[in-house]
Structures are given as structure tokens and as C-alpha cells.
Amino acid sequence: MPELPEVETTRRGIEPHVNGQKVLSVVTRTKKLRWPIPSQLNKKLSQQVITSVNRRGKYLLLNTDSGTLIIHLGMSGSLRITDASAAAQKHDHVDVVFKKNILRLRDPRRFSCVLWTSKDPLSHKLLASLGPEPLEEEFTAQHLYHASRNRRISVKDFIMNSHMVVGVGNIYATEALFTSKIHPLRAAGKISLPQYELLVSAIKEILVDAIQRGGTTLRDFTREDGKPGYFQQELQVYGRTKQPCVVCAHPLRSTKQGQRTTTYCTKCQR
DNA sequence: ACAGTAACCTGTTTGC
DNA sequence: TGCAAACAGGTTACTG
Questions:
Q1: pLDDT per position as a tens digit, A58-108
Q2: Which of A1, A6, A92, A114 has the CA that lies 20 to 30 A from A219?
Q3: Count of alpha carbons within 13 angstroms of residue A105, beta-carbon side
Q4: What secondary structure does DSSP assign to A130-186, as a single string?
Q5: In Å, how far are A60, A135, A236 from A4, measured between CA atoms?
Q6: In this complex, which residue's CA is closest to the C1' atom of nucleotide B1?
Q7: How confident is the model at residue A259 (pLDDT cuts 50, 70, 90)?
Q8: How far apart are CA A132 and CA A143, in angstroms?
Q9: What local confidence, expressed as pLDDT, does residue A226 receive?
Q10: Per-residue pLDDT reduced to its tens digit, A117-128
Q11: Catalytic residue among A11, A56, A58, A80
Q12: Under a CB-based contact definition with an 8 Å cutoff, are residues A9 and A211 in contact?
């Protein structure tokens, strides 16, 4: 579900509600999501004050003086701020309880994860080898160009690999390749530097635009207040198989890459 | 090191 | 209409 814009939208949404707040307790209703939820999480977090809410790739980091709660929303996870008296629903797995409200994780498909580390979260196994942030300066065409030489993997799978760049999932990879007129099945190693320049610009622009619109809501995603994002209205190719290309009107084609659908225009993207 | 596939889950949509 | 298969925003683990 959530790609970088949705996670950033969530971060911005929850931050004012939890930052500086003291955790009263943690309620877990399942032992395991993508990975086991740390036992003793309640003991570790209770009485701790949230000192900041950060994001690295699609991971949310809730910092305290004694450690960091790491949350990844997987495919169908969402966080919301609920009233302290609101009853938990079917797929509400974890509550971080504050005095006035609750930070509640809901995830029907359970691909999300909740982890705890008392060390620098960026050195955690899952975060340590992540690629650059797409909206930071270190994400450049040069970086992609050099990392992709001699790689036969498709350019789409390449940019969706979090070790190359974080935060680019199926929706925004599909859109950025369309904007930069690159065929998604082409080998990453055959893409020229000027083409990577176009692609990097497209990724940055699309992510910024999507964040401004509160992310993309297709079915599961909701913001912390339960409202949807509005970027889906801007999608030019994702989910538009057989519909006309917005540039040339040729019907868009879909194919499978791995277990992911990719949609593209056979005339515009080469 | 790299590429491809299976796996983790459940809810919704599609197709016969 | 009913049922089963296909599909869904992610990422790691495993295989060759």
C-alpha cells in the first residue's frame, strides 16, 4: 500500500498528536505481523516520551530517550489517531496509548511490522543498507547510472529496489517511467545517463506532488484522520490498462513483472 | 553478485 | 447468483 508519499503523509499527520507525549501503555492484539512484535513492548515504551517522529524510506521512527519504535506499514497498514475510548476493530493490531488519544495500527494483510531498537535505528538490519532518499540531493542520475552498469534487471524493478533508492513502489515507479518515456521492461544497464536524468527528475516531481495531495488512496490507505489522499486523480497510467494514453491516445498495455502489474504506453515509452 | 520466484496474509474484484 | 481464482500499495528469504 503505502509508498513514500503515503508514509510521509502519515508521519506529518501523527507527529503533532504524539510528539512530546508520554506513552501510558502499549496494547498488542497479535503476536506477529510480518515479524514477531517484540515481547515486553509495553514495558519498553511505557512512561517514555516521544521525542521526534522521523521517516527513513517507508519506515516510521518514533524516537524516545531509551530507544526507537520502528513501524513499516507493508501493503495495507495504516496508522490513525483515535479517541482514547474508541473500541478496537477487527484488524487493529497495536495501540500506543497516550493520555488524550491512541496511535492505532490497522492492517488487514499483516505485512506491516512493529519493531523496537535501543540503538541507532539507522543501523538496524532492515534500515542499514537502504539506498538514498529520493527527495534528498544524494539521489542523482549519476548514482542510478553507475549502480546499474551491466545489470540486466528491468529498469522498473531496479528503481523499486530499496537498496538503490527508497520509497518508490509500484504506483510511482509506473508513473515516473511514463513521464520519462522509458519502457519499464528495458534493462537497467542499457539506460543512458540522460535518460536517468529524466527519470530522477520525474521521480522527484511525482513524489513531491503526491505528498502535497496527501498520497494516493486506492482502497486501504487512509490518513491519520481517516481521510483519503487525492493523488489517484493525477495517475496517468497506473490502473488504466486498455484506456487511451493521455499523450497519444494509444491504448495502454499491461504486463506482469514478477508478481507486479506494470502499465505503459508502447508508443510513448521506448 | 545477480535474477527470478515463493512466501508472508486477508479482503475485494473478476471471470466462468 | 455463486464460487473460485486472481489480484492488491511491500519486502525478505531462498534457489540456482
A1: 999 999 999 999 999 999 999 999 999 999 999 999 999 999 999 999 999
A2: A114
A3: 31
A4: ----TTSTT--HHHHHHHHTT--SBHHHHHT-TTTSSS--HHHHHHHHHHTT--TTS
A5: 10, 10, 18
A6: A151
A7: confident
A8: 9
A9: 82
A10: 999 999 999 999
A11: A58
A12: yes
What domains lie within chain A, and their CATH numbers? 4-123 (3.20.190.10), 141-264 (1.10.8.50)
Q: Report the candidate in A190, A181, A160 with the shortest Cα–Cα distance to residue A259.
A: A160
Q: Measuring from the CA of residue A6 to each C1' atom, give the nucleotide at the shortest distance.
A: C9
Nucleotide nearest to A189 (CA to C1'): B2
Which residues, 6+ apart, have CB-to-CB distance to A230 below 8 Å?
A213, A214, A217
Amino acid present at A160: M
Residue of A151, A186, A253, A260 marked active site: A260
> Is the pTM of the predicted complex or chain greater than 0.90?
yes
Residue the block writes with cell 502499549 = A26
A256 among known catalytic residues = no
Q: Identify the pLDDT of residue A125.
A: 95
